[in-house]
Amino acid sequence: MAKTLREKLDGMIPKLRDERVKLIKGHGTHVISQCTVAQAIGGMRGVKSMVCDTSVVEPDKGLFVRGQSILKLKDRLPEEIFWNLITGDFPSKDELAQFQKELKANGEVPNYVWKVLKAMPKSSHPMAMLDTAILAMENESAFRREYSKGIPKTEYWIPTLEDAMRILGTIHVIAAGVYRIKYFKGDLIAPSKKLDMGADYAKMLGLKPHKGQTAEMMRLYLTLHCDHEGGNVSANTCHTVGSALSDPFYAVSAGLNGLAGPLHGLANQECLNWVLQTMEKFGGAPSEKEIEDYAWETLNAHKVIPGYGHAVLRVTDPRFTAFNQFGKKYLKKDPVFQTVDRVFKVVPKVLKAHGKAANPWPNVDAGSGALLYYYGLTQFEYYTVLFSVSRAMGMLSQQVLNRALGTPITRPKSVSTKWLKTQVKK
């Protein structure tokens, strides 16, 4: 018999709580990481100090969502991915249909949200518009309502799940509305009662369907960007804000504010811009020799080649591979994709010869922008909004699990530079 997501979690959570209690009681003093002075000053990179069960990034393999390579999940619907992030399983056909119906029931954006967005300055960044809309919807929070009634701690996850469903049901609707308002694309397009999340998002943006390719591209984009461990800026910010029992509207809005930062969510537009500059320089899709020469010119000017290298990965990002496979299937004759593909063949060799890149291989951002550009999304600053719609799945799934497991408030100990100097002398 098909279960709702809440029913599925009802059966899972007691076992997860018991597992966590046993780990703390039996191995609570076991040391799993140490922190160097360089790590403390340099953003805590590599310090193992939080738990995230939804996904793991293996340096030599890439992103794994609930134990499966993201490359194996590329044909899954975003709704299936969200279910999997929370439960570790995939919904049956009946469960998926029921879950999609629940999301549609949560998909109505309050009219006051549209009024807020339309009242914002025309120069507002689309990410500021999306963040503001999610925060404005905090008025809808089930968690805030139930917490004020004195709900038991063991039930915190239930209204958190309600809020998660509300956000997930509306974020792509809001994001499409932001696009149409910001770029004067005409009236808002109402969501469909029948289409899946990816296809509906593409339709509400007003993009040409390209015989279903646009919807397929959007599903792929949302699936590939769904989660990336718990330590990246957006996930970590959402986790920290949520740990104070701020409801998911506060927490996700905060996480998206982190995603808006140039060092986190700007990469795909920077990559595409470099590709377009390369094409402009050579009057079209350049040859491999021309790309090699331009790559050396870029490096010798002490600039980076966007999209190559990653903070954790030491192999080609499997998400890039998925986008590249999609491009070879549908975009073989597109000069922008041709350039991206040729850059992939040339740049790793150049970076190896250059010798200063820890990882010469492409990350997901090296290829995603070319697909968005081809299917009509040419407004670069909007790309982070697409990223946000997808990454909300990871943030929301982590929020539900953290409230279910009673994860405490985040409070690392800070030290002064004077204290560090004293420790080093010792």
Describe the structure.
By secondary structure, the protein is mostly helical. It has two domains: 78-263 and 380-404, Citrate Synthase, domain 1 (Orthogonal Bundle); 267-374, Cytochrome p450-Terp, domain 2 (Orthogonal Bundle). The protein has helices at residues 5-27, 37-41, 78-87, 93-105, 111-119, 126-136, 142-148, 157-182, 197-205, 213-224, 233-243, 248-259, 262-265, 267-282, 288-300, 318-330, 335-354, 365-374, 383-404, 417-425, and strands at residues 55-58, 62-65, 68-69. It has a three-stranded antiparallel beta sheet, with no helix packed on it. The longest helix is centred in the middle third of the chain and has 26 residues, at 157-182. The radius of gyration is 22 Å and the shape is globular.
What is the tally of beta strands?
Answer: 3
Just give the CATH class of the largest domain: Mainly Alpha
Low-confidence stretches: none
- Helix-strand makeup class: mainly alpha
CATH architecture of the largest domain: Orthogonal Bundle
How many domains make up the coordinates? 2
Largest sheet at a glance? Answer: 3 strands, antiparallel
